[in-house]
Design brief:
With 87 residues, this protein is mainly α. 55% of the residues lie in helices and 0% in strands. It has a single domain (3-86), classed as Non-ribosomal Peptide Synthetase Peptidyl Carrier Protein, Chain A (Orthogonal Bundle). The protein starts with a helix and ends with a helix.
Length: 87
């Protein structure tokens, strides 16, 4: 899955979690400040992403930097998919 596809799936997942249409996302969009994601939404987003991209997410690997922007979350997903592909 390339980065563009990851971003499309992130947008869909965010729309589902936030219960509203999310407009086109720039990678610099901040999840908490710009999109109003909260801590409960983060947990829900992780569950939706696991289903959407087929990635098993280990909560122990997650630091606050992963959720800083759409781009940082996309990078985390891409790295996780790459790691899964190598196994």
């Amino acid at each position: 899955m390339d980065r563009a596809e990851i971003l499309v799936r992130l947008r869909g997942s965010l729309s589902e979690v936030l219960n509203r249409e999310v407009p086109e996302l720039g990678e610099d969009a901040r999840l908490f400040e710009d999109l109003a994601l909260d801590s409960t939404g983060v947990i829900e987003l992780l569950m939706v992403l696991e289903d959407s991209v087929g990635l098993e997410i280990d909560p122990e690997e997650l630091g606050p930097e992963v959720f800083k922007t759409v781009g940082s979350l996309a990078s985390y997903v891409a790295a996780g998919l790459a790691k899964t592909a190598k196994v």
